[in-house]
Amino acid sequence: MRQGESFPLGAWLQRGGTNFSIFSKSATLIELLLFDRVDDTAPSTVIKLDPGKYRTYHYWHVCLPGVRTGQIYAYRAHGPFDPAKGFRFDPQKVLLDPYGRAVVVPPHYDKAAASSPGDNTPYAMKNVVVDTRDYDWEGDSPLKHPFDRTIIYEMHVRGFTAHPSSGVSAKKRGTYAGLIEKIPYLKELGITAVELMPVFQFDPFDAPLGHVNYWGYCPVGFFAPHAAYSSDPTPIGTLNEFRDMVKALHRADIEVILDVVFNHTAEGDHTGPTLSLRGLENGVYYTLDETDKARYANYTGTGNTLNANQPIVRRMILDSLRYWVREMHIDGFRFDLASILCRDEKGKPLENPPVIWDIESDPILAGTKLIAEAWDAGGLYHVGTFVSDTWQEWNGRFRDDIRSFMRGDSGTVTSFASRILGSPDIYSHKEREPEQSINFVTCHDGFTLNDLVSYEKKHNEANGENNRDGSDDNRGWNCGVEGPTDDPAIERLRNRQIKNFLAINLLALGTPMALMGDEMRRTQRGNNNAYCQDNELSWVDWTLLKKHRDIHRFLQRLVDHRLAQRPVTRGQSKSLSQLLLDARFQWHGVKRNQPDWGYHSHSLALTAHLRRGRVVLHLMVNAYWEPLEFELPEIGQGANDGWRRWIDTYLDPPRDICDWSEAEQVEGSAYRVQDRSLAVLLQQLPAKRRSRKNQGSPLAMPKA
User: Fold this and answer.
1) Do you find a cis peptide bond into 627, omega within 30 degrees of 0?
2) Are strands 332-335 and 255-260 parallel, antiparallel or unpaired?
3) Can you tell me the distance from the alpha carbon of 46 to that of 256, in angstroms, rounded to the nearest whole number?
4) Is residue 239 within 8 Å of 227, Cβ to Cβ?
């Protein structure tokens, strides 16, 4: 046994052994525990780290010759137990290494044993020494797609293939390997990035009333992939299967974005379990209540708040991100409750939070996609004001305003117009590109797209909390009947509304995000908070794909036309998404050049003149309950022919959306847009330069 080194933190293989290093400022003794089996009642070896020899500053370290890959280990920490002063050392509790890169869970894991007095050794999660360098990436590296060429698909690793109808073999259902088998489906759909709900090792029992935590927003480690998502139960098997998944997605030109939780952990409030950070240095890792240090500041709604701008925690967050990019080839991160990262060590908002700038300026993370859920449960709402130069933001106002307008709410037309143009009312003050806005109508948190048009109220009874959980602000409309129906007229209306939402999301300026299964009308039966439903309520039922093939086809065509490269000038091609960024816009109402910004307006039209191109698009949206006649704009002399219909959500497939080359001629000077539907017309223009007179400005509208 050698003294070892304080760096790097965690367990790292060296020549002939393994170096262990862990941080604890206030501990009086650290014990390194070695196990032969994950459920051993006692460690096979206990190594007491004498602070006189095995401690450098606040770091405890030792190098053990002969310890190799596969060794199970954990820690115990001795020190003061004085919650009133913020200390919660408990030498009877087995602790995970915060930098552990693999976690094993005993068959009889018991979270309660980590919350109660006494030794919890056989029931505790533990770490495993692994060598992450022993993997053949075959030349793989992060893809670095630009945001204007990005279509995000938010998905749950387990929920994507767990259903028997997935066609994945039983052993691989709900795993990283199962996802690999479905890559052809993702490629066919046309998405360019998957955003995986949490895959850091989490505590599945971090849920009330005997439920499991399906979503995974309860991490116990920031460096280890969740072992239960692997078809290979061995620690190195989990790492390899995760990397196989990343490599396979990259081969299909699909990026991998991780939904990361750096705002809280599974250790919960003052009554919660001691799993790792709480037992190592409670007052450093967590933000404590200013008036009662025995309790935790709770800006997350989950019991505790990670002290993100404390220097030790800042480094841990940065080290974690670097690890996932460098060792796991991850392309980007979506930061859950990212406004937490803007609070200081006492929970007060910071104007220039150090951890945000650390992440943004880190050279290893350069080019990595950084996406903020720019709010928290403590009242900070930073959509449009998140502190950064390069971060994108989940645009919650896009979701709300698009839902409200399409439901037929009054007073929403100006907000709806702004969302279509990349939310200039939110972002123009920062002189940022529209892609800063991650546009979505649905996400994991809330109704699915099917449920948005099938329910007006949440139905979370299955969660066992008397329907008190989940948001009450859903802005859904059930089209006349609450829940499933056999009425063909209502089903047709619901299909139309779904296509309306998909079209708006894919045509709006910004970066579109779709929710797993929306393309086949996945339902959660009105549950808008299915965090604890690891069952068919949450899983993708692949039989729906055949039933709702028209929805899948509609989204597929939208994605294809958004991303397809089209000739612009000699030797230059651009996608529709790129052309729209460079377009000029002209607003209309049902009357040409007369947009109705009034409180009771339920319709709007927009002409997009694509610069240096030969195409003009004309969008007409009717959120009214009766058909409307829209006057068509006159493009001027030189048009190759009249307007042609690309999209009309009222029409049955395949006429609801077609290839541009197959667009049908539209006769007359007006177009009838049916109730609760939208239409997009296009016109081919000659290559010569044309006048831009009266084309208007994307900001030429009243303020919402």
Assistant:
1) no
2) parallel
3) 40
4) no
What is the reported pLDDT for 590?
98
39-45 CB contacts, 8 Å cutoff, 24+ apart = 39/106, 39/107, 39/108, 39/122, 40/121, 40/122, 41/121, 41/122, 42/121, 43/74, 43/121
d(CA 383, CA 394) in angstroms, rounded, equals: 8
The whole-angstrom separation of Cα 31 and Cα 75 is 6
| Contact of 386 with 341, CB cutoff 8 Å | no
181 vs 191: CA distance, rounded Å: 16
pLDDT value of position 166: 98
Expressed in percent and rounded to 5, the helix, strand and coil fractions of the chain are 25, 20, 50
638: left (phi over 0), alpha (psi -120 to 50) or beta: left
What type of residue sits at position 89? F
Other C-beta atoms closer than 10 Å to the C-beta of 14 total 14
Residue 688: DSSP 8-state: S
What DSSP assignment string belongs to 334-359?
A: EETTGGGGGB-TTS-B-SS-HHHHHH
Bridge partners of residue 587, in order along the sequence: 606
Cα–Cα dist 660/610, whole Å: 15
Residue 430's pLDDT is 64
Lookup: tokens for 60: 């405890």
Structure tokens at 264: 């809280």
CA-to-CA separations, 67 to 187, 197, 485, in angstroms, rounded = 43, 34, 62
CA–CA distance, 345 with 348 (Å, rounded to integer): 7
Measured distance CA(355)–CA(310) in Å, rounded: 9
Please tell me the predicted confidence (pLDDT) of residue 686.
Answer: 63
Name the CA radius of gyration of the chain, rounded.
27
Distance (Å, rounded) from C-alpha 358 to C-alpha 387?
A: 12
**Maximum distance among all Cα pairs of the chain, rounded to whole angstroms:** 90
Give the whole-angstrom CA distance, residue 180 versus residue 172.
10
pLDDT value of residue 500:
98
Q: Which residues pair with 45 in a beta bridge?
A: 34
Computed over every residue of the chain, the mean pLDDT equals 94
List all residues 6 or more positions away from 662 whose beta carbon is below 8 Å from its beta carbon: none
Helix (H, G, I), strand (E, B) or coil at 281: helix
Active site positions, annotated:
336, 373
Give the H/E segment covering residue 377.
none
Place of tokens 């000659």: 686
Kindly give the parts of the chain with pLDDT less than 50: 689-699, 704
- Phi, psi of 561, deg, nearest 5: -75, -30
Q: Which residue's structure tokens are 């972002």?
A: 427
Grouping H, G, I as helix, E, B as strand and the rest as coil, residue 333 is strand
Terminal alpha carbon distance of the chain: 68
Q: What is the DSSP string of 83-105?
A: GGGTEE--TTS-B--TT-S-EE-
* Residue of 625, 634, 639, 636 lying closest to 673 (CA atoms): 625
In this structure, what token pair is assigned to residue 555?
């989204």
Please state, in angstroms and rounded to a whole number, the distance separating the CA atoms of residues 200 and 157.
12
Question: Residue 425's closest CA among 385, 388, 394?
Answer: 385
Task: Report the C-alpha gap between 166 and 164 in whole angstroms.
Answer: 5
Measured CA to CA, the distance from residue 443 to residue 25 in angstroms comes to 40
**What CA–CA distance (Å, rounded) separates 686 from 415?**
34
Tokens of 448: 């699915």
How far apart CA 321 and CA 391 sit, in angstroms, is 15
Kindly state the tokens that stand for 126. 């533990």
Q: How far apart are CA 269 and CA 282, in angstroms?
A: 12
Instruction: Retrieve residue 493's tokens.
Output: 């209306």
Rounded distance between C-alpha atoms, residue 156 and residue 214, angstroms: 9
Dihedral class, residue 377 (left if φ above 0, else alpha if ψ from -120 to 50, else beta): alpha
- Within 10 angstroms of residue 703's Cβ, the number of other Cβ atoms is 9
Q: How far is CA 228 from the centre of its chain?
A: 20
Q: Which residues 6+ apart lie within 8 Å of 546 measured at CB?
A: none
